[in-house]
């Protein structure tokens, strides 16, 4: 049976945005030392502060011991230089959804880390095969796709590229299980499983909006209350971030040779161009300030 990484293994998370901070929390809760790095000054510290804020609510409600809180937050180490993560056994990148930027980071990580270090990508849609193609050892790259918010969502897609070593995917699967997640294996098809199935949900909702069927709040309420969806499409894309969701749609659209089934929405493009990225910027379809 494949062994999961033990808690003596340091984990590094690169990118301390919505996903990276959540993933750092998950790994720290499981007992690992976690390095958190972001190229934006202060972002890693802000990521850890965000985790502390979330956990503090549970302390206040009596659902988490103060001692456990201190231990979890104390295990997250914001680092300003990428070189500080060199002794990690698993590095999970959660940076911007862009093939070339991710490739550059992965190449730097390959130089920095030792040969046993597993490199994982939290990409929502970019081919793991393509991300690994320029690495010297693409067999150690695997997709580890968490869902938003990472501490609450159980599913993790463990995505194998063409060159991914099965043993590496097995270790990541076993580790995710130890972290309390429900991992599934997927191959590197555009959008993998969930983001592929979810594309028509977003696309048709955006088309309905463009056709003037109803406003976002009405459409969200109908899908939540009558359709039994946990969240409507507009509140959900505000949570995901329109920059991320739009990049994922473009990635799937282009991977399928511009199949119009996956056509990106002009409404979402406008939101991205206006900087209305959703919750993280204070405004998307809704206002948060
Ligand atoms: P985000 O915009 O909240 O955070 C990205 C962070 O990465 C930013 O803080 C940015 O400063 C940092 N960054 C960018 N380039 C960097 C680099 N070269 N080195 C170090 N840091 C860098 O984005 P997010 O929503 O956390 O998404 C991150 C990744 O996770 C993307 O690949 C996205 O597709 C994927 N993902 C997102 C969601 C979601 O719902 N938002 C869900 C699953 C997966």
UniProtKB/TrEMBL annotation:
The alphabetized UniProt keywords are: Oxidoreductase
Top-rank taxon, per record? Bacteria
Q: Can you give the residue ranges of the 3-hydroxyacyl-CoA dehydrogenase NAD binding domain?
A: 11-186
Q: Does this UniProt record's set of keywords contain Lipoprotein?
A: no
Occurrences of domain 3-hydroxyacyl-CoA dehydrogenase C-terminal (ranges): 191-288
Family membership: Belongs to the 3-hydroxyacyl-CoA dehydrogenase family.
**What is this protein called in UniProt?**
3-hydroxyacyl-CoA dehydrogenase PaaC
Q: What is the organism of origin for this protein? A: Marinobacter albus
Q: Which residues of the full protein are shown?
A: 1 to 289 of 507
